[in-house]
Amino acid sequence: MPVKILIVGGGYAGFYTARGLEKMLKPSEVSITVVDPNPYMTYLPFLPEVAAGSIEPRHAIVPLRRHLKATEVIGGKVTKVDHEKKTAVITPESGEAWTEDYDVIVMTAGSVSRTFPIPGVAENAVGMKAIEEAQYVRDRLIANFARAAALPTDSEEREALLTVTVVGGGFAGIETFAELRSLATSLIEYYPQITMEDIHFHLVEAMGRIMPEVSLETSKWVLRDLDRRDAKVHLDTQLKSAVDKVVELSTGEKFASDLIIWTAGVMANPMVRSTDFPVDERGRLTALATLQIADGDTVVPDAWTAGDVSAVPDISKTPGPGGFCVPNAQHAVRQGKLMAKNIVAVLRGDKPREYNHSNMGAVAGLGLGTGVFQSGKFVLKGWTAWMAHRVYHGLAIPMWERKWRVFGGWWNNQFLGRDIAHVERAIEPRAFFEEFASRPKPKTEEAPAEEKAAVTEADDAADASDEKTDGKTSKGKKPKTEKKVSEAK
Ligand SMILES: Cc1cc2nc3c(=O)[nH]c(=O)nc-3n(C[C@H](O)[C@H](O)[C@H](O)COP(=O)(O)OP(=O)(O)OC[C@H]3O[C@@H](n4cnc5c(N)ncnc54)[C@H](O)[C@@H]3O)c2cc1C
């Protein structure tokens, strides 16, 4: 019987584990299953550029079924794991949950946005952890320009529409902030009614600095670069409230902002609490450097973990905070690849290897033509760093088919300019259809007497008009009838 390996989460770590296993084991030896609510792996470092309209959303994701040919992909969430019994409950988007058994489990469910109970945040902010969020932000900002252009210059609504707030000054926050600012600059040329002075960008960071991944000096250069572009960074400042999209800061400053983007940190996916695996105080699965889940030094047999959901000891010369690997793609990719090798090693009775990777540095895009790169004391700023960012990430997205699409998009933009088309209403696609869709006539006997009369009158009027237009329903009559019907309900 082939060994049944269940991979929980097909993101960075899960995707590379599945690919590694596919390459090393024959279908007669192993059956690999990936469970993920999304049918794709998301290349998260591209989200800021997706939000800025520099990369097509679909190009920044890697379809699992296309690229994991020997793996069964199940669309759903793993909602419970009983490792004692080696069973996992899978809850699909539609239909009943079921229990799946396995021989070996790989826990790679990643992380989720970490928020605090700040009034208005849950209702009004959006994260930057999913491709859908990045696309929404892109469409919303572009659509807001069109809305604002039609409003008087002294309108409060106009000011809110042209105000963007990003909470969190880590890499993801700064990249998102700078990329959106760059998009806004490009949009200006299409809206003569809007000037740069009308646009307001605020980044809120609780600490006294941004981007802890680079040196203080480099982070100050980024601050100066943002300041030059009139993008305001509020250091040592906390978001106090975002009720009704009115941002209130701990400094007392208050302004309305239509787009509030939350990037203030991540935490291990809380789904691990529905398992019987050991978890540390920060909610991460505890593991050895071999990527085996472990309770202290005791290995939990046939259970592996990697990426943001795990606390993997960092045994490199430059360990992360607390001696653990930081949650980033550099680690998740390499851990995924090693984990596949280690699983095969253990299945064949060999010893697993320890994960040991020294940080290669950090590279960030800060909008078209500018970026920052730091590795040790070596720093690049501006255009060269931006090129390094594009080359590195363009080549790092898995699969040549995806790299081709990303580089192709950038190449096209080079000559055709940034694509400012948006499909904001894709989030409510049925609205177009519903607006003119015919509905069955109301059951008039259910309505009170005088409302019944109103409905009948309206129907008669509509019918008469239909006759005049040779049976074609005129657009003008439909809403009138609808209004009466809804009043009658
Ligand atoms: C905007 C942004 C920019 C970034 N930029 C960089 C960068 O430049 N460099 C860098 O090194 N890192 C970067 N990172 C961090 C990096 O992307 C993550 O560290 C990395 O994705 C972690 O990989 P993972 O496999 O642990 O999790 P993920 O890649 O997040 O994958 C987790 C998967 O698990 C799935 N899942 C969730 N819950 C369940 C469940 N219950 N059952 C089954 N599946 C589930 C999810 O759908 C997802 O597909 C960035 C992150 C963000 C958000």
UniProtKB/TrEMBL annotation:
Keywords: FAD, Flavoprotein, NAD, Oxidoreductase
Spans annotated as Disordered: 437-489
Pfam families given in the database record: Pyr_redox_2
Domain FAD/NAD(P)-binding: 4-336
GO molecular function terms noted in the UniProt entry: NADH dehydrogenase activity
Stretches with biased composition (Basic and acidic residues): 437-454
Keyword Chloroplast: no
Alphabetical list of Gene3D superfamilies matching this protein: 3.50.50.100
The keyword Oxidoreductase appears for this protein: yes
Sequence similarity: Belongs to the NADH dehydrogenase family.
PANTHER family: NADH DEHYDROGENASE, NADH DEHYDROGENASE-LIKE PROTEIN RV1812C
Protein's UniProt name: FAD-dependent oxidoreductase
